[in-house]
Amino acid sequence: MNWVLVPQAVVTGILNGGVIGLIALGVVMIYKSSEIFNFSQGHLLTLGVFLTWWFAGAKETGDELFNLPLVFAVLAAFIIAALIGFIIERVALRPMAGQPLLSIILMTLGLAQLLEGVINLTFGVQPRSNFPAPFPATESFKIPFSLAFNETIFLRKTLVATFIVAMLGTALLILFFRFTRTGLAMRATAEDHELARSIGISVPRVFGLSWAIAGIVAAAGGVLLAMQIGASPTLSTVVLVAFPAILLGGLESLPGAIIGGIAVGLAQGLVGASSLVVIRNSAAIAPYVLLLIIMFIRPEGLFGQKRIERI
Question: Domain count of the chain?
Fold first, then answer.
């Protein structure tokens, strides 16, 4: 281990983990409300990124549709992403009610392929490296730290800004679920569908709302990620990194998704800083190794609920 790189790796890993946690949050939300593990979340994320690009764009490319400021472009993308999520639940998943779980999972995989085709046909397959961002990608500030390489930790402004926005978004979602009537209805539905119906909660409405919010969360996570690395059709693969975060934190825990994301980012950062690891793509493997270790100790995840069911 190159120890002088560790402080930089820890800070960068935590900041990267905040965005991973926000992406994982969208999957957890759908699972909590409907017990469906959504494999199309990554493609919803990519669609949100390209919609934002479409509304804002880069002036030198001519790709912009309305030439909106970034904030308004993101809001427009959120509205469309929420509408798409709502339509997916109504048109594709609601008719699957009562079907075997495997059939519903295959439906989400089919949706992923459909969304990928729509993205490629509408926006093309070329990446956009200069995604609009509030700060230049290379602009950073320095923090003196005696144990770090060159006694300095470098923090990219975009990375810090995306982490702060991800944490604020997470806090808003947690407050929404804890203190609003709609949020409490969604929590009740997640706990027991039949009991929720018995007290007058419209379970289908909750399902539709869950998918709409998950669409917004996916778009938000994708935009924050694209500000760091640019827009590309391959952004959907970031969910492969979010899956360990989801399982590590617990499938039913919103705070667990964030903590799992930060743990995954930290693991990737530390492995990347290690000079002893010679395995190719070791940073990509690290989250799954961490997940296996946690699963041996606590199979339901760090914050998952232990349930005892009669078989």
Answer: 1
